[in-house]
Amino acid sequence: MGYEELEIIKEECRNCHKCGLCKTRTNTVFSGGVPNDKLMLIGEAPGFYEDKQGEPFVGKAGQLLDKILGCVGLSRKEHIYICNTIKCRPPENRDPLPEEKAACRAFLDKQIEILKPRIILLCGRVAVNSMMETNQGITKLRGKWFEGPYFSKMMPIFHPSYLLRNDSREKGSPKWLMWQDIKEIKRVYDQLCK
Fold first, then answer.
1. CB–CB of 23/103 below 8 Å?
2. What 3-state class would DSSP assign to 69?
């Protein structure tokens, strides 16, 4: 299926100097999980722990992501490929600048092109803004399916770090909404990918 191509792109990414983030990174953060043509999650940008370890979603937000996936029987070791909009950590975890996103876009596009996942989850506002031409916020977009590249289905979801800051589980709260979203994602996953 050409997954070895991902290793070539990963090595190119590791040696990338297309923007200023190469000067402050510890590691590039190319991907995590398992390459597959079923389920891809696109996050925003590496944080402190991701930069140190070279893998996406390894801090508290990553632990919560693993719990959310686990609630419906999915895991990063078996079912999901995880990558980010950009591959290097912005200083102080600020939002990526347009030129930084543009410099990294070819890597993300290649990951999508090689895998052609059936389902793409856009995790957080930055991922949504990078993949969709819209001015709507993630609160309005989350939980809805959109047409994605290579005939994929895309769904915006809340970033786990946002959920960590919003602890309520009451009906209508971000955590409650995420539970509705992950059940819908699993329903479509079972329909498209079994």
1. no
2. helix
What is the full per-residue pLDDT of the chain (194 aa) written as tens digits? 468 999 999 999 999 999 999 999 999 999 999 999 999 999 999 999 999 999 999 999 999 999 999 999 999 999 999 999 999 999 998 999 999 999 999 999 999 999 999 999 999 999 999 999 888 889 999 999 999 999 999 999 999 999 999 988 899 999 999 999 999 999 999 998 76
84: DSSP letter: E
Q: Is the separation of the CB atoms in 131 and 148 below 8 Å?
A: yes
Task: Write 166-169 long-range contacts (CB < 8 A, 24+).
Answer: none
Q: According to the 3-state scheme, what is the secondary structure of 136-190?
A: CCHHHHCCCCEECHHHCEEEEECCHHHHHHCCCCCCCCHHHHHHHHHHHHHHHHH
Q: What does the block give as tokens for 34? A: 């398992």
Q: What is the pTM of this model?
A: 0.95
Pairing state between β 81-84 and 146-147: unpaired
Tell me how far apart the alpha carbons of residues 90 and 48 are, in angstroms, rounded to a whole number: 9
The closest of 104, 105, 85, 103 to 95, measured between CA atoms, is 85
C-alpha distance from residue 45 to each of 56, 87, 123, 151, 170 (Å): 8, 6, 10, 25, 29
